[in-house]
Amino acid sequence: MGYSGSTFFRTIDGAYLVKSVPRHFEHDFFKNELLLPYAEYMKNNPESLLIRITDFLERAHKSLGELLGLAPSHHIVMENILYGQDRTPKDVARQKWESWDLKPTSFFYPERDVAGGALATEATKSKLADEFDGKVKLTKARAAQFQEILEKDTRFLANNNVVDYSLFLVRISAADVSHSESHRPLGTSQEMDGSISPTPPRRSPPNPPTWRTGIMSSNGKEVYRAAILDFFWAKHSLHAKVMTGLVRGYNLIDEQGPMSITAESDEYRERFLKMCMGFVEIDK
Asked: Which residue stretches does the UniProt record annotate as biased composition, category Pro residues (predicted)?
């Protein structure tokens, strides 16, 4: 289960995830407004950090579960950048595969900020964005490339009025990536576009290395993967407008600023970029 009520399934080879998109305002926005611009953008920007969505599935007929709100009507199929983790022994994976779902923590989060978090349960607060207390160690050239890609991707999202997306960051011990070196995803073939099909992790990332397959740290001790997820929340949707009005009303009583879901797209982009580059440590 995801924090938004989504369910996740993993293909048997671990290369793809099937995620439900249960909220109407999200799948409606993606289907009717973002899908074609996203496809065109990804075609023209193969280095993009936006997660590769390969399929968008919609139920052809109404079902009882859907009418009762018990079963989702839409799903996406997307790459799994944790590919290879399930081929690593569990005791090793827990120590050498780490992942974080990161959003700017400087926004107002009611679960955390109202009454100091006393009114929310620990289970509720656990659904907030993760905190990454380490550093992504990169060469100067790699850091500049990372920033350039992030700026381009987030400009595309801001131009489409998207907020509340997150950076999914994976850190793998470089000594461990060889566990799945010999495995290729099932169902891939020479006919498939190499820029689309997932590539198994290797001790040395392929040339050129990408954030999808693994970027080696500047000290050679870690491999990083990263992707931007959950770009389905549009500021101009009715749901977002209602939430923005509620937060503005609350700020008349207790000024806390915008939430990540009510911020303007340019402001969210600015804080997101600052967060991402704040994780980077440049090798001198």
From this structure: 198-209
Are the C-beta atoms of 157 and 218 separated by less than 8 Å? Answer: no
- Cα distances (Å, whole numbers) of residue 83 to 42, 67, 74, 199: 21, 35, 24, 8
Residue 2 maps to a domain: no
Domain assignment of residue 22, yes or no: yes
Does any domain span residue 100?
Answer: yes
How many domains is the chain built from? Answer: 1
* CA dihedral for 274, 195, 207, 184, sign (positive or negative): positive
If you search the block for the tokens 């090798």, which residue do you land on? 283
Sign of CA pseudo-dihedral 39, 45, 50, 54? positive
CA dihedral sign of residues 199, 81, 195, 279: negative
190 inside domain = no
CATH of the domain at 121: 3.30.810.10
Asked if residues 251 and 257 have their Cβ atoms less than 8 Å apart, the reply is yes
Question: Which range marks the domain in which residue 69 is found?
Answer: 8-182+198-282
- The list of the chain residues with pLDDT below 50 reads 1-2, 112-113, 115, 117-120, 124-125, 179-198, 200-206, 252
